[in-house]
Q: What sequence folds into this?
């Protein structure tokens, strides 16, 4: 493949991923509202389009045409750039995620990964962690006490769960011996019994918990907990800037779902009679549904409970898991 | 759930007391509580409950503009003025009782004698901004002329749109089609009114 072909292919992939995942993030809001509604014996959006399907479009029009308000006392450049960080890091993290198995179209083999780097896991987790700068900067720059509280909570949340994420993922990485997501995927190519979740169930649970914290989903939805701090870091935001936070959050959810299914649930290998491409879509859909499911079922935790959980429970468990994995590997 | 269960205000009989243990003080007891709560699976009970509700799909939503909940015949919404069924004359005889009894002082009427020396109501307005929908006007009306209708959707550009006489009065063509329902609600004569009528005890 020449350089020109590579550049063109990469640009096309970037556009496809951007468009597809923006649309998926929008559709995710629809799914979330529907699933939450059904679980609470409601109907959810019903009026715009058939079964409320065009609600996403209506919301988009509303967000785009809203006035872009920048508060008077805010630090304006940072206030304006913070949501861009949120959305951008969510999409940059997707760059190193192999989304599907290789396939051929018009006689060209396509690798559905934008940048096949050999430290994929590290890159994805690092970029997603830097995405937490978005709520941090947004909250601190918006000259609002609720925003400031949200930013403070971002800091404690980042410090707490990032350790757990790293340690929990260390054990499967020790098994595989590679940081490349494709290698991790290929390690589980033997079928259902080869999935890492069977050898590393503790790491899987820990990673999921940390993933909930990473994406600010409900059990750890401290940053914009409506009942306590209005909307947290997003209190002063409106229109498309707020929408970018939203898109970032949903893209992050999809990324975490992809990571969990790639690392622990067998990735895009064929699953029995189900072809790999469909298998990973099913797994990601289930994990996404799980995100919504827990939101309907579980209450929030307090910030001190989050820190207690992460530092006093999850981190020791993760360390013990790593040590046990190491001992087993040495024997 | 039937209506009777909703109406049963005597909730104290259905109370169940949930035993709440004292919070542990010693570190070991705290640790035991954490273990108990972690492995008891209460989180999964929550997941199961919401999943069950989703699968059951027992939706309670009323899609309001399309479907409406039935309202009681005694519901007191925007007033109506009725006509006599056969002649089509207005039932209102201009006695002014409703104007008198209205505790919000929102009814105003003008009357005059027509050519037959019969009282005729020229103007009849209700200020809905002041009306508290108590129903006294409907109750006091001797002719069952002013009643509370079932129309509770009173959104409009101006409040004045509901309260003029022409808006409340049954239109003549509507009456001819027999669409003026006899009022079964607030201030109506009771169903067994005929049996309850007694002769006046005054013997002149």
A:
């Amino acid at each position: 493949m020449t350089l020109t072909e590579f550049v063109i292919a990469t640009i096309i992939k970037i556009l496809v991923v951007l468009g597809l995942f923006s649309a998926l993030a929008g559709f995710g809001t629809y799914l979330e509202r529907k699933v939450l509604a059904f679980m609470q014996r409601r109907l959810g959006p019903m009026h715009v389009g058939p079964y409320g399907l065009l609600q996403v479009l209506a919301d988009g029009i509303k967000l785009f045409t809203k006035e872009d308000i920048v508060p008077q006392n805010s630090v304006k450049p940072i206030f304006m750039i913070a949501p861009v960080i949120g959305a951008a890091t969510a999409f940059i993290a997707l760059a190193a995620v192999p989304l599907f198995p290789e396939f051929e179209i018009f006689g060209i083999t396509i690798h559905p990964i934008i940048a096949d780097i050999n430290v994929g896991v590290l890159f994805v987790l690092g970029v997603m962690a830097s995405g937490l700068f978005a709520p941090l900067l947004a909250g601190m720059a918006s000259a609002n006490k609720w925003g400031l509280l949200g930013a403070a909570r971002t800091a404690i949340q980042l410090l707490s769960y990032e350790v757990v994420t790293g340690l929990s993922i260390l054990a499967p990485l020790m098994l595989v011996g590679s940081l490349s997501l494709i290698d991790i995927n290929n390690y589980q190519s033997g079928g259902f019994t080869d999935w890492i979740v069977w050898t590393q169930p503790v790491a899987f649970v820990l990673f999921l918990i940390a993933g909930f914290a990473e994406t600010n989903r409900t059990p750890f939805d401290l940053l914009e907990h409506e009942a306590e701090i209005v909307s947290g870091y997003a209190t002063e935001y409106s229109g498309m800037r707020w929408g970018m936070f939203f898109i970032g959050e949903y893209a992050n959810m999809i990324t975490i779902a992809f990571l969990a299914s790639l690392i622990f649930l067998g990735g895009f290998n064929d699953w029995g009679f189900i072809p790999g491409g469909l298998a990973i879509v099913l797994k990601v859909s289930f994990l996404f549904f799980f995100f919504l499911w827990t939101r309907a079922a579980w209450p929030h935790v307090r910030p001190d409970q989050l820190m207690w959980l992460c530092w006093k429970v999850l981190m020791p468990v993760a360390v013990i898991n790593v040590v046990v994995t190491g001992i087993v590997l040495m024997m | 759930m039937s209506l009777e269960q909703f109406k049963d205000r005597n909730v104290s009989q259905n109370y169940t007391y949930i035993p709440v243990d004292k919070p542990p003080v010693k570190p070991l007891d705290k640790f035991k509580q954490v273990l108990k709560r972690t492995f008891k699976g209460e989180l999964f009970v929550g997941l199961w409950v919401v999943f069950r509700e989703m699968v059951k799909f027992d939706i309670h939503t009323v899609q309001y503009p399309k479907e409406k909940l039935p309202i009681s015949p005694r519901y007191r919404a925007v007033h109506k003025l009725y006509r006599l069924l056969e002649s089509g004359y207005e039932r209102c005889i201009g006695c002014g009782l409703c104007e008198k009894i209205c505790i919000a002082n929102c009814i105003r009427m003008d009357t005059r004698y027509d050519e037959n020396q019969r009282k005729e109501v020229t103007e009849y307005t209700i200020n809905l901004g002041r009306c508290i929908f108590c129903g006294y006007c409907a109750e006091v009306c001797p002719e069952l002329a002013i009643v509370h209708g079932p129309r509770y959707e009173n959104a409009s550009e101006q409040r004045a749109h509901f309260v003029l006489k022409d808006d409340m009065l049954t239109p003549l063509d509507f009456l001819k089609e027999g669409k003026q329902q006899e009022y079964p609600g607030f201030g109506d004569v009771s169903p067994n009114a005929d049996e309850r009528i007694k002769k006046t005890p005054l013997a002149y």
